[in-house]
Records
---
Amino acid sequence: MAYKITEECLACGSCIDVCPEEAIKEGDEIFEITDDCSECGSCVDECPAEAIIEE
C-alpha cells in the first residue's frame, strides 16, 4: 500500500510536520511523497483536505 497526494492538496504543510521519515517534499504546485515513505499513514490522518490517498 503506497500513498499519493492528490490535486486537492492545499500545500498547508501539515503532513510534513507529522511524517517520521521526512518523505514528503514540496513539489511544483502540491506536496509529493517520496520513496522514503514507510506507509505509516500519519499524513493521511493529519491532512485537512483529505488529499492523501492509497495508491
Note: The chain has a mean pLDDT of 95.
---
Amino acid sequence: MAIAATILVVDDKKNVLSALELLLEDEFEKVITLNHPKCLISTLQRGNVDVVLLDMNYTAGQANGNEGIFWLQEIKKFNKNIEVVLFTAYGDVALAVKALKMGACDFVLKPWDNNKLIATLNAAVKLSKSNTKVLELKQSERDLRRVINREAPRLIGQSASMLKIKDLISKVAKTDANVLITGENGTGKEVIAREIHRQSLRANELLVTVDASALPENLIESELFGHKKGAFTDAREDRIGKFQLAHNGTLFLDEIGNIPLSIQSKLLVALQTRTITPLGSNREIPINIRLISATNCNIDKIIEEQRFREDLLYRINTINIEVPPLRERHEDIALLAHFFYEKYAHKYMKPQGKIGEQAIKKLQKHQWPGNVRELEHTIEKAVILCEDQSIGADSFYFKSGTTAESMACVTIEEMEKQLISRALEKQNGNLSMAAKQLGITRQTLYNKLKRYDI
C-alpha cells in the first residue's frame, strides 16, 4: 500500500523524471515531477508536499551545485517543515554535506540504488510529518494558553484600597520582580496573581499554581522539582515538577507559609541559581520563571517562631501586595454581589433579574469572615434557591455573632476557629464535607485543626 505522502521530484533530465515517477508511484500516494525549479515554489503553494527530491544543477556547463543550494534555501523559507533530499553526483558529495548543514534532510548519489532511494524518502516523509505534528502541538499549546489566560477571574473593586492594588499591579506586572501577596483566606490572592500574569510579558506562557497547604509534606519536593523513576517507593515513572512546567511562564506558590523548612532551603537554592534538580537525578535543569507567592500567615510571626526562613522571605518579597479583607472595603460588596449574581444566573440558566436594594444593604452589614469567597458562595446559594427573578433580603440568612458590633472584639484567629468548629458540628465531624462548606481544601482544614488544636 502506497504511503500517504506527496513527493516532488525536480530534475532537468526527462529520462530521470520518467524513471523516478515509475519507481515511486507505487510507493507514495502522489508523485509530482518538474524539469526546472522555476515553478518549484508555486507548486509547493498548490499542494501539501511532504518531501522534495532536488537535483543540484540545472544549467548546462555548470556543476558547482549553487543552484541546488539556492533552491534549498527558497524551500526552507517557504516552509521549513518540508524535507529536502538532494540528488547529487559523486563529485558533489562535499557540497551535499554542506547542504545538510543548511537544512537538507539527506542526499542520494547518482546513479541511485532503488531500495536505498525509497528508504531515504520514507525516512524523510516520517521526519516531515513529525515536524508538522510538532508544529500543530505547539499551536494547540499556544491556543490553550490563550484560553486559560482569557478565562482568568476578573479583579473587581473600586474602593481606594483596590484601586491602589490595581495601580501597583500595573507597575509590577511588566517586570520579573518576585511578588508576595498577603491577606486573609478568601480575599482573592489567586485572582491578583492571575491578573499580574495576565498583564506580564509572560502572558502567553503558562501560569502554574501550587497550593502548598494541599500537599502532604513528603510529596512537596517532588511536586515542585519533579522526580525520576525509582526515586522513591511510588515513583513508577519520571515526573516533571511545577518549576519545570512553568519554564518561561509564572509559578504561583499559594500558602507558601506551609512549606516545611527542609523544602524551603531547596526552594531558596532554586531561586538563587535558577536551576532545579529532580529527585533521583544528578542533572541540574535550568529554569526561567517569574515567582508569585501568597500566604494568609503572619509572616513575621512564623519567622520569629523559626517556621519560615528570613532569607527566603527576602528572595520572594521584592514587592508585597497586602489584600484587605472584604469588611474593610465596604463599597466593593455591591459590585462583587452583582458580578457573582450574573455569573451564577447564567450558569444555572436562571431568568436575568437583580439583587434588591434591601438585599444589598443586608450584604453590606455582614462582616464576611470568609471574605470574597464567602460572598460568592452566598450569592450562588441564593441564585440556586431563589424562585423569583430578583433576590431579596430574605434570600440571605446569617448566623448571629457576625454583626459589626459582635465582631468588634473578635480576632481573625478566633473568628476562623469559630467557623471551623461550626462547620465540623454541622457536618458531624466529616472533614471533607466541612472543608467543602468552608471553601477550602481538606489539607488546609487539617492544618488549621492542628494550628487551633480543635
Note: The chain has a mean pLDDT of 87.
